[in-house]
Structures are given as structure tokens and as C-alpha cells.
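Schema walk-through. Below, the input block comes first and the output block second. Nothing else is stored per chain. Lengths vary across the set, and this one has 354 residues.
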Amino acid sequence: MEVRRPRVLLLAMYRLDSDRTGPMVRIGAVRASLSRRVSLDLISGTRVSRTWEMLSYALSGRMRRLAGVYVESSSSLPGPADLIFLGFARALGVPVLTYVRDAYQLFPEYYPLTSLRRRISRVAFLPVFRALARVSSVVAFPSRGLARAVLGDGDWARRAALLPPGARLPNVPALDPAARELLYVGGLAHAASGGDLLVDAMELARERVRDLRLICVVPEGQRPPEPYPGWLEVVRGGDQEIVGLLPRVLATVTPRLRTPYNDLAVPIKVLEYLGYGRPMIVTDATETAAIVEAAGSGFVVPATAEGLAEGIVSVAEASAVQLKRWGDAARTAATASSWDMRAAEILELLGVKA
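--- output ---
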């Protein structure tokens, strides 16, 4: 006799046909991992399009058969329909777990108030997201610092769950100690991401190790301005393309500046880097540094051109034994923080036995 699997609804407050970005990576990975454990329904899209999907879903009667709702909130504000739909689920006794991925509106280094619309979003952010938290059974964040930024310093933030990003475990080629290319994945649109810092650090590092090169895999529309230095290769690609680059890659690099938001953020790319099995060079933003220090997978350096260059040179001059030790440590940490582990945590927080 076939055992019926519990049914869970994934409410993703994004269009899922956009470029490879942090939210798309996370939602895709969570969706795949949850689908292996439960029967998964999906509602996604813009605020307008998902409103009609939620209305249709509510009228279909399927909500009464749900074991839980998992919400991936977006960087933009949820709409009234989102709050009503989740409140309806709670009224039916369906548990709701909401993940709040960021709070850019609260941090001017990522969200300058350059328009009236942005000013309105800044003022509305805390009331709206706290309303979203109130209609949820459990609210989760990537870090305790982000929970405090959104919910305040009281018990509410302390009771919030932590659901940092997970790591993929792709089949990757062995590390070649003779490789001389560093890998950076992600956007460079914000100064706080450290693009200028990384370029300056590479120039300094190449004064000591002349054959070092850098590969930047960036989303469309976020390419750094040309002309590029001869040692910089800028490409666009997804997971398969990145894995295809790894035979050339000695180490990964995360050059984020020390800013209030960067100290409490947990970049998805850092967890992705663990799965690549390469040494990691990261600046000392609080949450990023904690991941690498706990894993023992590389260098944490000051967020200066000189500090980052010193870390790059130290990896380039390390022995093959040490490089392998760092790479193996990264892969071990990835296994302990995989997306499958995150999916299991989501179901546990929802009280769903799969």
C-alpha cells in the first residue's frame, strides 16, 4: 500500500524565470530538496500574478489538505493579498514558516533613497515585514543579526529560527595546486560588494605572483565597466558553467566591505564556494568570517586592498598539502550544511513528518 506523502505549499515571492541570482539559487535548491521529501505545490511570481494564483488556490479547497506553507519572501514588500492568504492558512490550522532573506531597505549602502518610491519602501519595510512575521507560525532569518534588525532586540528576535543558505555538492574536479586563477561569483553593482577592492588587491598580489588571474561570474546587467585588465575574465553562466571553470581555479574570493549590512548578511555564494572544494579567501565581515573560521577552509583577512592581497598571495604560495587541507575542509563543511539539510530543517520547523 502506497503511503501518501504530506503536501506542502512553497510560496515564492519572485518570478522564477529570472537570471541566476541569490534568491533564484536558494528557491531552486529548496524546491528540489523539498520535492524529494513531500508533495510540493508552488505559487510564485510578481505581487499581482501570485495574487491570482493564491485566490485560485484558496478557492480550490486544497489548503485544507496542506501540512504546511513555506514562504520565501522577496526583497520587495509583500502585498496585502500575501498577508490575507497566509492569515487564511493559519485560520485553517495550517502552520506557516516564513523566511526573510534580507533587509536592504534599512541599509543605505545597499538601498540609497534616490526616489520617492524608495523612501516609501524604507518607511513601510518594518511595519509590513513585522505584519508578515505575525501571520506566520515561525519566522526564520539567515542570521541572528538580521532577525534583530527586522524584529528588534527583544524575545521576538531571539525566538526566530535560523535558516542560513545551504551548499550544493556538485561533482567537482580535484584541486590543481598549479592553478593560478581565483573565482568570484555574484553581482558587483554595489560598492559594498567589494569589486573595486578586489581589483586593487589583485594588482597588489600580482606584483608578487605575476601569473595570478581572476574569473568573475556575474549576472547580466552587473558587469563591471570596461576596459578590463588583461588578468580579468568576466563571464556569465550558471551552475554547470561554474563547475566547468573549476579545473582552472586555485581559490574562491569574497571581497565584501565591512558595512552594517555585510556584517549580518550570510551570502549564498560563500556556502556555494564550500561545495567547490577550493580554499576560500574572505574579508572579515562578521557572518562570512564565522563560516570560514568554523570550516577551517581558508583565510579571513581585513577588508582592505593590502589585507586581501596578502590573503591571495598566501594561498598562491601555499604548499599542495595545505591547499588540499583547505579544500577538503570546505567540502566537509558543505556536506554538513547542504540544501538537503536545510529542507529537513524547514519540515521540522513546520512540524511535518516526511
